[in-house]
Every structure is written in structure tokens, then in C-alpha cells.
What we know:
The protein is an alpha/beta fold. Helices cover 40% and strands 24% of the residues.
Amino acid sequence: xxxxxxxxxxxxxxxxxxxxxxxxxxxxxxxxxxxxxxxxxxxxxxxxxxxxxxxxxxxxxxxxxxxxxxxxxxxxxxxxxxxxxxxxxxxxxxxxxxxxxxxxxxxxxxxxxxxxxxxxxxxxxxxxxxxxxxxxxxxxxxxxxxxxxxxxxxxxxxxxxxxxxxxxxxxxxxxxxxxxxxxxxxxxxxxxxxxxxxxxxxxxxxxxxxxxxxxxxxxxxxxxxxxxxxxxxxxxxxxxxxxxxxxxxxxxxxx
Length: 255
């Protein structure tokens, strides 16, 4: 279980999060929505222990700020829209790094035959097996995202934090990514928290939503229980429902 109680984050003398109180149950899937700059990514980084904070942020009753980095890295994985690789590792080598998180006690990790087979399995899952020997930094943004998704699957953390994971992905792979996360999370009771800018895509992962605005929680709960046309317009400062309805009319004329 993840709990935040009046959590606040200040960076460079600017308050980014204010009085954030949330609970994420073990095995739950939750989407974080809100306009740019509202604090969504900062919230994920706070849960991951990457930022200093005030208030309380706990995982299974343990204060995140007091957990050792190695322990936290094994328990929590964050997939960012800006993930990069510093060196010229191949696709296969990059995914294989997911196994090293489970061997943090070793100076020189030993990768078993079973783990190597799992690497190939997850590369098949994300449709990258044919380019497993290519250098990651030579791939497109969408291909790189799928590499890091395979690495996340191999790492097998208890908590997965997704920061706009569909960034750079075309429509096919956006749909497949959500489907794979849904299947993986359901079968293994992973706690998944995802930041999205596309409301419709977010709802394919979960209807449990946290709306943020200006660093605060605006509302939380089931999408259909908390959302109205006026509410969404207040959050995003635009009549988003009318926009979606107009888009729907355009699509209904296609045969």
C-alpha cells in the first residue's frame, strides 16, 4: 500500500505539490490526469523517492525518505517519457539490465539461462526480437519506449510508475502497451500508477482517476462518479467534452 498524508514538494523555492493525501491499495491501477504543470510527474517522483518532500509518504508503512535506495529500486520502477541510455548498449543488453535490480547484493551480477530466456520472451512480447542486437540509441523514440517496457517487465517490481508511457508510440503500440500492462498487473497484482495526457487512453488502463490542478488534488475516485462537463472544463480550462463530441461526429461518417 502507498499512502501520502499532506505531502508537499518545493523545488527551487517554488511549491509544486501542496497537501497531497492519497492512498493506493496493493494491486490497484490508478491514472493521474490534469493539465501540464499541475504536478503529475512530481507526484510520481515523490513516490519513487527521487525528490525531497514534507509530510508523509509511505510504502507498506515505511517512510519513503528513509528507505535505502537499493531496496526502493527493487520495489519500485518508473518508466518515464524521457528515459535514455547513456552508453551504446544493444536492445538485448538494455532489457537484461532489468535482471540486475534483483541482484543488488552482488558486485558482479550472474545472469542465469532462465533470465536470458525471459529477456527473449519479453522482447517477443513488445515486438523487438528482430532488432535485439541493434544499439538502443539508434532506435526511434517509440522503439525505445518498448525496450524500456520490456526491461520493466523483466525487473518485475511490485509498484510501477508510468509517466506518459505512450509518448512516441503510434496508435497500435499505445493500445498494445495498455493491454500488456493490464494483463501483467492483473495476473501478478502489481500496483500501477500512470500519468496520462490522453483521457481516453487512460480509461483503457483504469477508471480509477486522480485529477490534479495547480499542485493539489482536485478530485479522486471512479471517473463516472466524479466527472461532469463543468468539472473537466474547470480542470483543463477548455470545453473538452464538446471537443470529444465533435471528434466523435467526424469519425461516425467514416465507412
